[in-house]
Automatic annotation (TrEMBL):
It comes from Ananas comosus. SUPFAM superfamilies: HCP-like. PPR repeats lie at residues 180-214, 215-249, 250-284, 285-319, 320-354, 390-424, 425-459, 460-494, 495-529, 565-599, 600-634, 635-669, 721-755, 756-790. The gene is LOC109725052. It holds the Pfam family PPR_2. NCBIfam families: PPR. Residues 35-56 are annotated as: Disordered. Keywords: Repeat, Transit peptide. This is Pentatricopeptide repeat-containing protein At2g26790, mitochondrial. Gene3D superfamilies: Tetratricopeptide repeat domain. Belongs to the PPR family. P subfamily. The lineage of its organism: Eukaryota, Viridiplantae, Streptophyta, Embryophyta, Tracheophyta.
């Protein structure tokens, strides 16, 4: 404990002349005799004023106590004493603290006083001693102590040292001085802002030790600090404990919890508490709702996000553009442009102002879907609405024009952007270069590139790649190599993608020899990322129809333990299947699987179809089962491919079993699947004729099976298309139900379907087989009248029918 005569640090000089004069007057009165009190001024102007006697701690303390009703005057006296050379000790410091803490209190002055005290040596001990005296002189009154404690905490916080602040908090509390909940909250918030979670929890524990009941703001600070540290479970436990203690969360608490849970990835908890606020009648701001909407969108829970947006409107929460922007952005990212536009129109109908960012989401989605024309229509619509366009939106408009080959309009838009004070950057120039390259106007592309350099806009690798690809594609070989050299001179090293684009460009331009020369040179140099080069060369060969060369290059790269990219593999599988090299396609498949690369569903479809076409149903089924085992979603197209293969292989029962399996697992058959089975049953019926099965029996069985399938189609609300009707008509004709076949044709026409040459040829063949040549010829005339051109098969069928009829007559 400090002794009473311990000298404490001097305070800063007071600049207030009024307080200084008053303090000096008080001092003079305090140390003069009775006669002098009657004559406070000197008797002669020549005589100097009497020097005050030397100040003592007792005199200063007595004077301060005498000014207990004028704490600010006491403070001025306190400072002037120091200016006169007096060094305050523990007793005088304690007294001025007591005076400034007395109601109503002067917190700013007290904070300033504590800041001076905290700068002294052994500050912690000095402060503890001051509070010890203050507690003894408080006579049971806690308000001045709490007031002084608040000021001390704020003074410590001003020094931005959380640990030091918490240490003095703990020491003063150890003296039996109980802080107010307000002081505790201030300290909690200060420690939280400093990122000292350990200090935050320590203060909370000491609060409980002091018996201080936390309020809603206390828990709000704790929840925020825990969430900021990523401790979502502890934050939720704190929220639960708050309710158990009977402390009702306020609007700030709910908002903090919702935001914290969203930031920690605990979206469901945040969403649940958001709904709880509605039940409690606490309406949060749009910001809080928008955070949950953003989280739902990121998790692709778009329907829930929309429902929450609707709830906001019903609860009279002021809607803004942010909630809509999150939904529009996500719908655009997944390619659901219709939904994005619906939300945009809804937002506009409610008078919510859009932003360039939202518009860019929509226009970018148009571009991603290849709808350049529609992108331009909406761009013009947004521009005419008065929306302030930025450089990003201008770039989208310019790029759309370039994609459509409207280079004049693109240049006009670029000039408009310049007129509005926007300087084109490398992205705008690259779009123009790409547009000219797409049109084959390489000279103009080169001019744009030169203009770009003249305006001190430095091209990046993308710009060089686009121009190099254009040069190669249209045979500007020398210019392409000059550009590569120019890149190096500018400090930009061409990468594998640059060379890959060059190879692709040569191949697309029919310059296979140039592509091969460049490829071989690069491979000899050992360019990094050779996967890109081999992939480009494989795709180049495939583009030129050199599937065998592409396959050999694939094998060469695979022998090195490497694999070309998935796109190249997929294209190679398609090319091999198209050429009938199913074994080669299967080898590519197996190589991919060995490298843990799963081919896409399209590649599976192609190889299954190729095996079906070759009649190898065992391998076709094996690849189908492999796809199922990998958990890949099987669609109706794959099932139909395999069903068709079984039908063509005269294995109708297995086709029917597969059809049933498909429906059982919830895949709805389409009209193609039904058509395949209908045609399969027809061929099976004809096959029975070869096996000597009686015609009447065959006809009845065929009729039953067809009726069953047609009823199933009707139940599924699947309407036959032209191909399906053609198969049905052909079946009725070959089973000698000619009248029914004609009814089917009339039914087609009534539905607005246009029969093709195959449909009419099937019925003409049926009439001819029955010897009804006149009806066949009349049907041919009807076919021509409808504008359907007969093909060679039609005339061949009719000619054979006429010849057969003549032979029968002879």
């Amino acid at each position: 404990m400090l002794r009473a005569h311990h000298r404490l640090p001097a305070t800063a000089p007071n600049s207030s002349r009024l307080f200084s004069a008053i303090a000096a007057l008080i001092h003079a009165l305090d140390y003069s005799s009775g006669d002098e009190k009657e004559k406070p001024f000197p008797s002669s102007a020549r005589d100097p004023p009497p020097s005050p006697p030397k100040l003592t701690s007792a005199h200063v303390l007595r004077t301060l106590r005498g000014l207990r009703n004028s704490p600010l005057v006491a403070l001025a006296y306190f400072r002037d004493c120091e200016n006169l050379g007096f060094r305050h000790d523990l007793s005088t410091y304690s007294e001025i603290v007591r005076l400034l803490s007395a109601p109503p209190g002067h917190k700013e002055k007290l904070v300033s006083l504590f800041l001076r005290l905290l700068n002294s040596p052994n500050a912690c001990a000095a402060v503890a001693a001051v509070f010890g005296r203050l507690k003894r002189s408080s006579h049971g009154s806690t308000a001045p102590l709490a007031f002084a404690f608040d000021a001390l905490i704020k003074a410590h916080a001003a020094r931005r040292n959380a640990r030091e602040t918490v240490a003095i908090f703990r020491r003063i509390g150890g003296l039996g001085v109980s802080p107010s909940v307000r002081s505790c909250n201030f300290l909690l918030n200060f420690a939280a802002e400093c990122g000292e979670l350990e200090m935050v929890t320590a203060v909370y524990d000491w609060m409980k030790g002091f018996g201080i009941r936390p309020d809603a703001y206390t828990f709000t600070i704790l929840i925020k600090a825990l969430c900021h540290a990523g401790k979502s479970e502890e934050a939720f436990e704190m929220f639960r404990r708050m309710k158990e203690m009977g402390v009702k969360p306020d609007k700030m608490t709910y908002a903090t919890f919702v935001a914290g849970m969203c930031s920690c990835g605990e979206l469901n908890l945040g969403y649940a508490v958001l709904e709880e606020t509605v039940r409690e009648g606490v309406i949060l701001s749009a910001i809080d709702y928008n955070m949950v909407i953003d989280g739902l969108c990121k998790e692709n829970r778009l329907q829930e996000a929309e429902m929450l947006l609707q709830k906001m409107a019903r609860q009279d929460v002021t809607l803004d553009s942010y909630g809509y922007s999150y939904l529009i952005r996500r719908y655009c990212e997944v390619g659901n442009l219709v939904k994005a536009l619906d939300l945009y129109e809804e937002m506009a109908s409610k008078g919510i102002q859009t932003s360039p960012l939202i518009v860019s989401y929509v226009l970018q989605c148009f571009r991603k879907l290849g709808l350049a024309s529609e992108a331009l229509l909406y761009f013009q619509k947004f521009r005419e609405s008065g929306l302030s366009l930025d450089k990003v939106l201008y770039n989208i408009g310019i790029d759309a024009h370039c994609k459509l080959g409207n280079m004049k309009e693109a240049l006009n838009l670029l000039q408009e952007m310049r007129d509005k004070g926007f300087a084109p950057d490398k992205i705008h120039y690259t779009c123009l270069i790409n547009g000219y390259c797409l049109k084959g106007e390489i000279v103009n592309a080169q001019k744009v590139f030169e203009d770009m350099l003249q305006t001190n806009v430095e091209p990046d690798l993308v710009t060089y790649n686009v121009l190099a690809s254009g040069f190669c594609k249209y045979g500007f070989v020398d210019e392409a190599f000059d550009l590569l050299d120019f890149m190096v001179d500018r400090g930009i090293e061409p990468n594998a993608l640059t060379y890959g684009l060059a190879i692709d460009g040569f191949c697309r331009g029919g310059k296979l020899s140039e592509a091969e020369i460049l490829f071989n040179i690069l491979v000899e140099r050992g360019i990094d990322q050779s996967e890109v080069l081999f992939s480009a060369m494989v795709c180049g060969y495939l583009h030129l129809g050199c599937t065998a060369h592409a396959y050999m290059l694939f094998l060469r790269f695979a022998a090195q333990g490497r694999l070309v990219d998935e796109i190249s593999c997929s294209k190679l599988i398609g090319g091999l299947c198209k050429d009938g090299n199913v074994e080669g396609a299967s080898n590519v498949f197996n190589t991919m699987l060995e490298k843990n690369v799963i081919p896409d569903t399209i590649s599976y479809s192609k190889i299954i179809m190729a095996y079906c076409k070759s009649g190898d149903m065992q391998n076709a089924r094996a690849w189908f089962e492999d796809l199922v085992r990998r958990g890949v979603s099987i669609d109706v197209i794959l099932y139909t491919t395999l069903i068709n293969g079984y039908c063509k292989a005269n294995r109708l029962q297995e086709a029917c079993d597969l059809f049933v399996e498909m429906t059982k697992i919830g895949i709805k058959p389409d009209v193609v699947a039904y058509t395949v089975l209908l045609d399969g049953h027809l061929k099976e019926t004809l096959k029975q004729g070869w096996l000597g099965i009686a015609k009447d029996r065959r006809k009845i069985e065929f009729k039953v099976k067809h009726s069953k399938l047609l009823n199933s189609m009707k139940d599924m609300k699947i309407e036959p298309d032209v191909v399906c009707y053609t198969v049905l008509i052909d079946g009725q004709c070959k089973t000698e139900y000619i009248k029914d076949a004609r009814k089917l044709l009339d039914e087609m026409l009534e539905k607005g379907l246009t029969p093709d040459a195959y449909t009419y040829t099937a019925l003409i063949s049926g009439y001819c087989s029955q010897g009804e040549i006149a009806k066949a010829e009349k049907l041919l005339e009807e076919m021509v009248d409808r504008g359907i051109e007969p093909d060679m098969l039609t005339f061949s069928v009719l000619d054979r029918g006429i010849l057969r009829a003549r032979e029968m007559q002879r």
